[in-house]
Design goal:
Distance between the termini: 122 Å
CATH class of the largest domain: Alpha Beta
Strand content: 15-25%
Structural class: alpha/beta
Oligomer: single chain
CATH topology of the largest domain: Rossmann fold
Radius of gyration: 49 Å
Largest sheet: 5 strands, parallel
Shape: rod-shaped
CATH superfamily of the largest domain: Response regulator
CATH architecture of the largest domain: 3-Layer(aba) Sandwich
Helix content: 40-55%
Length: 503
């Protein structure tokens, strides 16, 4: 018969599949017949054994198939099958016999035999071999796949167990809001105080650990993301311990109306506390800034009153005295000239005190915000010689003192910026009001600025305007591009003057 070396030495184009066959048979003729039948479809390498000892030696080699006669003088197919199983060899085992009965054949199949063929019907041998080889290959492939899957799951579980949070797979039905965890990592224990199995057995335990409003929030968010197959990003609070969790997951449609979400839940309590502390610090700074601003305005008003009432009154009295003295001095002319120069100095000092008092606290605000803006714009036009337009929808607008002062200061700052940086040829101002809002728009056709310049950290004038608006719960927009001018838009909630407060 052909040796293994002969079988392997065939030219590649003529090579057929090599089949290594161990034949347990005491009849040389039957052995040769079996090999001949198989040689029609395979390059056969075979060996004949007829007892347990010779088979044990042969099993040290590699075989694709074992074919055994059922009854031999010193051996049997059942003993051969037992020897094969004892060695834990996954090799197809076929029984060929002239005497095996149906009951014994069934027993052999239950014991692990692949098939049995009667010797008077050996034409069934080649297809039986094909089926047995295919079945073993399929079984091996399935076993390899299961092993690979098991190893993959083990790696995944090991990774998931070491992640800072709970990795999960969850099924969600949007029509009824039902949740079902099909996988939960070991992170469930530190996060929720639950074993992973507890959550997969009863997913309601997860929802019960959320605060009521956050539970409903999660269902709404899941429903919205499910409709769009969008990534889930949700944060909520646990019932116990004032703790926060974050849920991030990706959706996958299993079938119409059923989604699978794979993601992770993490504890974000520390981040949330830091965020709340930051917000609280900002709120404290905002309140402090508002308090400082109010104190500044109050101090300005006090100083303005003192300048007007005290210094202004004194200067006026001195001026009147000088006028009286001048009328009573006849000679010499040099003395009259000196008195006139002193009067000029007094006039200049009085104008300065009026201007300083006005800058500290515009007295025009006592007559209303609209006249104050109109006067300020007229003064700007006179000083800068820039044509200005003023449009106002409500001449008799009444605002409370704080709101009126904020609007006026922001308007002053906008004109200051135009005079310093804009190189404008014209300025348009629109001042509108409704029952609920006050809106101011200042537009120039000057040089404009880049978006980066609008947000420079050292833009203290702009920062001051924004802080004023934020304190009043309003909105401030600056729209500018190099060469296209600048537009400031201010919108504030309207507040009427408090009882007894007058414009």
């Amino acid at each position: 018969m052909q040796t293994l070396a002969d079988a392997l030495s065939q030219d590649a184009p003529n090579k057929r599949r090599l089949l290594r066959v161990l034949v347990v048979e005491d009849s040389e003729d039957d052995y040769l017949l079996i090999v001949t039948l198989l040689s029609a479809g395979y390059e056969v390498f075979s060996r004949q054994v007829d007892d347990a000892a010779s088979m044990s030696v042969a099993l040290r080699e590699t075989w694709d198939l074992v074919i055994a006669d059922h009854r031999l003088p010193r051996f049997s197919s059942m003993k051969a099958l037992a020897l094969l199983k004892e060695r834990k060899l996954d090799i197809p085992f076929l029984i060929v016999s002239a005497t095996i009965g149906e009951e014994v054949a069934v027993e052999a199949l239950h014991a692990g035999a692949s098939d049995y063929i009667m010797k008077d019907n050996l034409k069934r041998l080649p297809p039986a071999v094909e089926r047995a080889l295919a079945a073993v290959e399929l079984q091996r492939a399935r076993r390899d796949a299961e092993l690979a899957l098991h190893e993959s799951e083990a790696r995944f579980r090991a990774i998931a167990a070491n992640l800072p949070g709970m990795v999960f797979q969850m099924h969600f039905a949007p029509h009824d809001g039902g949740l079902l965890f099909s996988f939960v990592s070991e992170g469930a224990q530190p996060l929720f105080g639950l074993a992973p199995r507890a959550l997969t057995d009863d997913s309601r335990l997860f929802l019960e650990r959320l605060q009521t409003e956050d539970r409903e929030s999660l269902k709404r968010t899941l429903g919205d993301c499910a409709g769009r197959l969008a990534l889930l990003r949700w944060e909520g609070r646990l019932v116990e311990g004032e703790r926060w969790i974050s849920m991030r997951a990706s959706p996958r449609e299993l079938e119409p109306g059923l989604l699978s979400w794979e993601g992770i839940i993490t504890d974000i309590t520390r981040e949330k506390n830091a965020e709340l502390e930051t917000l609280e610090s900002r709120e404290q700074l905002r309140r402090l800034s508002a308090h400082v601003e109010k104190a500044k305005e109050s101090e300005r008003s006090r100083i303005a009153r003192e300048i007007h009432d005290d210094i202004g009154g004194t200067l006026t009295a001195v001026k009147l005295d000088l006028a009286w003295l001048r009328g009573r001095v006849a000679e010499p002319a040099a003395l009259k000239e000196k008195i006139q120069i002193m009067q000029q100095h007094l006039d200049s000092a009085m104008q300065s005190s009026i201007r300083i008092a006005r800058d500290l606290r515009p007295s025009l605000l006592d007559y209303g915000i609209v006249p104050a803006i109109e006067w300020q714009l007229g003064d700007f036009q006179s000083r800068m010689r820039i044509p200005c337009t003023f449009i106002c929808t409500e001449e008799d607008m009444e605002l409370d003192s704080e709101l009126a002062t904020a609007v006026f200061r922001i308007f002053q700052e906008s004109l200051t910026n135009i005079s310093k940086h804009a190189c404008a040829n014209s300025v348009q101002v629109r001042f509108d009001a409704t029952e609920s809002t006050v809106e101011l728009e200042v537009r120039d056709d000057g040089a404009g600025v880049s978006p980066e310049a609008l947000h420079k950290p050292d833009s203290f004038g702009l920062r001051g305007m924004r802080e004023r608006v934020q304190e009043l719960g309003g909105r401030l927009e600056l729209d500018s591009r190099p060469g296209a001018g600048t537009t400031l838009r201010l919108s504030l909630q309207r507040r009427a003057p408090a009882g007894g407060e007058q414009q």
